Amino acid sequence: MNAVELSPEDRALLEKLAQRVVEMRLETPAILTLEGARPLSLLAGQAMLFFEPFAQAMFRLTDYRRIAALVERRDALEALTRMIEERAEAREKERRG
Length: 97
Fold this sequence. Notes:
mainly alpha; 77% helix; 6 helices; 97 residues
């Protein structure tokens, strides 16, 4: 199965998500979760849709459905993992001076 190229909007959403993960210093658990969830990505995306009413009640998530659709795509999970790793590395380089 050929991966469809990420749209600029999807890439921007993943970039925003990666930046937030690194800002919260959650890159290690996020990467572990992404790597572990990759084989179950379709199920994870469907579970997100099931829990959408609960998530929407608790959080302001305007892009929740787009994120759920991206979670189903292994290429998107790989891209998000790379983005998180790159931002965490840049943060460490900046911290070191």
